[in-house]
Amino acid sequence: PQSELARQRRQKISEKTRCLQKLLPWDKKMDTATMLGEAYEYVRFLQAQVTALHSMPCQSSFGTTTAYGFQNDGRFVSGLGSLNRQQLLQVMLNSPVAQTMLYSRGLCVFSMEQLM
Q: Where is the BHLH domain (predicted)?
């Protein structure tokens, strides 16, 4: 009875750990403690990214800029320059490749206005 409950708890923890690992933007094997530490750091990165995006003006006062991005296979492409700021942000936020590259390099999206 007790061993059955303990086994069920372990299974549930294992299942939830696998679910959490699937949410992370990389696909590498790591032990549970490392994965939890990486998940914690990634959540902190996402919180900082959300804060930066919330404080970003919708329209730029610096005119148009050329935008570049990454395709799903990781290749660098240009041609996003015709997008407005909101559209470009949506592309970046919906791109796992872009999010992984930002996170792995310790970068965050911000606007020129936020630097002033």
A: 1-46
Q: Which of 109, 114, 61, 113 is nearest to 88 (CA)?
A: 109
On the 0-12 / 13-18 / 19+ scale of CB atoms within 10 A, 18 is exposed
Q: What is the mean pLDDT of the chain?
A: 74
pTM above 0.90, yes or no: no
Query: How large is the average pLDDT for residues 16-30?
Result: 87
Nearest to 102 by CA among 115, 91, 112, 113: 91
Tell me the average pLDDT across 15-27: 88
HSE-up (13 A, CA, CB side) for residue 57:
11
Per-residue exposure over 50-87, b if at least 16 CB sit within 10 Å of its own CB, e if not: eeeeeebeeeeeeeeeebebbeeeeeeeeeeeeeebee
| Domains of the chain by residue range | 2-115
